[in-house]
Amino acid sequence: MTTNTLQKIGFQHVGSFLRPESLKEARKQFANGEITATDLEEVENEAIADLVEKQVAIGLDVVTDGEFRRSYWHLDNFWGFNGIEHFNYGQGYLFAHEETRDDSARLNGKLSFSADKHPFIKHFQYLKQLADQAGVTAKVTIPSPSQFYAELVRGKNALVIGDYYDSQEALYEDIKKVYHEEILSFYDAGARIIQLDDCTWGMLVDPKFWETMAGVGFDIDELKRLYLDLNNGAIENLPDDLTINTHVCRGNYHSDWASSGAYDSVADTLFAKENVATYFLEYDSQRAGGFEPLAKVSGDKQVVLGLITSKTPELEDKQSIINRIYEAAKYLPLDRLWLSTQCGFASTEEGNILTEKQQWDKLKLVKEIIEEVWH
């Protein structure tokens, strides 16, 4: 049978795809001043058009631009806001085995949003055109408001907040405001599915992360309340035909990870109270814990189980994944569950360590299992 889940979610990928070599080379040439911004945009347009064709060819109902125009899954969005500067922090994000590049975003003024300034609106318009021509849905992926806040208070970034805001509460309100305006601009451009990518909850479950990355002195319960308020505040009073989903991650950089911990400690807040339609949840390793917290998912909200890893090239055993789906169904009904990879294939332009063929093989396996379990 075909369930309501299929109709609501469809076959879709979390977001990012491995960048083709032609695009990587063009970005290097642009950084070195060898080609113009127009030249780079032409290469990006061609690569995205080819990517959409490939997504349609394997049966995806919902497509993305692969985040091909971005260097990072999150920072590029922050840099598009007024009142934010792009600078080099001096230290990258510390993953389990690697340190990333050291780009960051910090305040250099009061926050505001301008649709004509933020590049993502134009980027989406191009994707929407391609998707409409192919008869599929275009999805927007952006970092969550809580992720934006986490960057603004990251270490020494927090030192400049007082230069522009008299209170933390005023900053919170502006974060919610710029996100709300951005989301409405996407809606006006034709977006009907917007996904908030969010590592903050994945980091909260790992105390070691706060010691090494964010520093000591954070109150975990207070952060839970704040993250919930930022995210829910940004997505309240939106059009009824706009679907807001979220993707919860523990870090995805060059096949490495940043944190470990089960969902248990955040489930009462994240699963019960965040006002999204669907959670895309990392579940590809023991670091994510068990399925028991899924019982806290409130209302008729849905969960997409990220059981297929995007980090390694080895293809999972189909029956093992199916068995895990039915194990999860002990805590949330099968008609509220779905399947995907745990994350994108290239959360930064470096990409994970696998080939493009292996990337597509992973998604083909996702589709095969969906058809076997939910049809």
Q: Any overview of this molecule?
A:
The protein is of the alpha/beta class and 375 residues long. Helix 3 runs parallel beside helix 5 (119-134), helix 6 (145-152) crosses helix 10 and helix 7 runs parallel beside helix 10 (220-234). It has one domain (4-374): TIM Barrel, CATH 3.20.20.210. The protein contains 13 helices and ten strands.
Brief characterization of the structure:
By secondary structure, the protein is of the alpha/beta class. It has 13 helices and 10 strands. The protein has a single domain, classed as TIM Barrel (Alpha-Beta Barrel), CATH 3.20.20.210.
Compute the separation of the termini in Å.
4 Å
Number of strands: 10
Describe the strand arrangement of the main beta sheet, using strand numbers: 5-6-7-8-9-10
> In CATH, what is the class?
Alpha Beta
Cα-atom radius of gyration = 20 Å
Rounded mean pLDDT is 95
The best one-word shape is globular
Q: What is the string of SSEs from the N terminus onward?
A: HHHEHEEHEEHHEHHHEHEEHEH
* Percent helix range: 40-55%
Number of helices: 13
What is the CATH-assigned architecture? Alpha-Beta Barrel
Secondary-structure class: alpha/beta
Strand content: 5-15%
| Overall number of structural domains | 1
The biggest beta sheet is recorded as: 6 strands, parallel
